[in-house]
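Q: Okay, next protein. This is LamG domain-containing protein from Kribbella koreensis. I've checked the sequence twice, so it should be correct. Can you predict the 3D structure?
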Amino acid sequence: MTKRFRALGAAVAVTAALTLAAPSAFAEVEPGGWTSYSPSFSEQERGCGQISGLTFQLTCSTGSGDQRAERRYATYSSGSRQFEGYFKITSMSGGTRISLKQTFNESAAGPFFMLAVESGGRLYRVGAGTVANGATVGTTVRVNTVHVVGSTHKTYINGSLKQTISSPGGSFYDKFGSYRTDSGKGPITVQWSGVNFWRK
């Protein structure tokens, strides 16, 4: 084999390895026609809630009051919106029934969709049933929500569609972090990563 062909073969091998190692630039579910965007956000720390970067903590075991550490994103009122994020619960000793992701209905002054976790790792929609299992301490879980205002709201866990519900019209916004539900308590530490938004 000539030096030229050996060099060409090595270059192809390197290119193939890099292609396999590189993550997809478009990890969203329901691909096709989405445009990436970066909505503005504010941070909410109340009660024993603490935020450090993308780490959200409830440091107390209080079973009452407003205990939250969340990011609240900009309001939208039309079209299709997709949220994607990865969370890992790093500590939940004694904590349970904590909301991790919300789609908030600003028009109705209340949460339209709340994805919460119990101490055993069950993910559920607050006020409804189980969405998925396996959100145990130390496990990374991917969450996608696809919201078509006035039509549907879909929840995907690790890329698999788990729930579809009807959506009214109105104004909505996304939130994620850690938030004590009415029946929940801390402590909990949640690390989020890979947060992306798309619209069409």
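A: Here is a summary of the prediction. The helical segments are 3-21. The chain has one domain: 26-199.
Q: Noted. On to the next one.
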